[in-house]
Structure formats: C-alpha cells, structure tokens
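Appendix B. One record, verbatim.
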Amino acid sequence: MSIPPAATSKAIRDRPIERHPFVIKLLTHASLSASDLKALNRLLNRRLTVKKGKDIIVQGFEYKELYIVESGFAVRYTLVHKGGRQIINTLLPGDIAGFPESFFDRSLYSVKAATEMSLNRISFDAFIDVCNERPNIAVALISLVAHEASLYAHHLVDAGRRSPLERVAHFLLEIHFRLKAVGMASENTFEIPLSQEDIADRVGLSGPHANRMISQLKREGLIAMRRHEIKILDRAALQIIAEFDPSYLVPPSLQQLRTNR
C-alpha cells in the first residue's frame, strides 16, 4: 500500500487547538474549559517531523518525553526471540507515543514511524504538571488509559481466538473507527498507509497470508481498495465476520460516570 502525503506543516500550524486530533480525543472523554484548552495549546507547542522508518522510541532505553501524534501512522512493537517483531498497536493521529514507555525506567517497547509524521514533543515533567494543575485534563487522560487497555484486550482476543479472516476484518474496522473519531475518515472510506508487513505483524500472520485475507474480503465484495484507500462496501457483513462491537472504542468518560452516580 502506498503512503498518502502527510498533512502540510502550514495546515497543522494554522489548525485551532480544538481541531488537534489529540484534543478531539480528550473532548470525547471529559469536558474541557477555555483555560484547559489554552494549557493544552502551550503543552503542544513543540513540533517535530519524523521520517518514515525512523524509530521514535527504542526498546530498552530510558525516555522522559511523550510524543503526541498530529499526523501520520506509527507502530508500537516489541522484539522477540531471534529478532522477530510483534506489533502491539498501531498509533494514529491523536495517540501518544511514550505512553506507557516513559512510565518505566527503561522502555518496554519500540515505536517506529510507518509514514512521515508530525509529532508534538512534551517533557514528562510538563505532562505531570498539567495533570496536577488541570483536573479536567487529568480526568480525560485517565479515561484515555482505560480506552488503551481495552484495545490491548481485544488484540489478545485477535491473536488467541479469531481466525485469520476475522483478524484482518476486525483490524480494518477498528482502524476506520479510530480514524473517524478524530475526523480523519469519512463514513465508509479511510486511508491505511501501512505496509503488508506492518499489517501482518499487527494481526499475527505472515505477509502473504494477510494479503490473501485482504484479497478474499475484496472478492466477496466487502471492501474495495485503491492504493492506500479502503472503502467499506458491506459494513454489516464485515462486522458479522469480525464479530466487531465498537463499544470498546467509546468508553464512557469519568465525568459521565460521576454524573450518573
């Protein structure tokens, strides 16, 4: 699959803080005031561009910084026996690289840019300070952690219980849902600028096997693919195959839980 051009630096600079994908995610988990948004704007003022294929975080090294994804895709992975790689999660716009890596003495995982990326670099101390000073932001981040844990739980089910076709279908639906949630996908169309190898590692299959599963979904009229763009043609059938229930991707915010007590 080819890689779409990254968002232009000018478009990113000119974007209001409310349209930053990370802030869009936070706003789905808690209400943020105007002063909270100003604090986030200050927090997200350091930007860097990372080229495709570059490691952002390397397993075994100490990190005291977080990287918020503004644009582009990355993969969080670990190296296993004899140099094998297992992708644990795909990082999309709005996600945090260094979470949970920076919370340990040495990073447990590596993070590599799968495309050219724009990132916001945040010192760990600045991150802790904003959580202490802005409880609404802290509430949103706690809910975000719960969201992340639910992703990993479903990925374990992928590896242990789903068939190869079910894994690939579930992966595509999850990526579409996550991109749409931050305004990066339309109702049925999205871009997935990952290599065949990246997709295969994420779903625990060989590259050729993952490609055959994608081809089968195309033959059965469930999806269409043009270069890096995927269009969902029959969502109901695809969800049945994947046993996909998106409720794990939209956990209730802690603010809502407090209100309902």
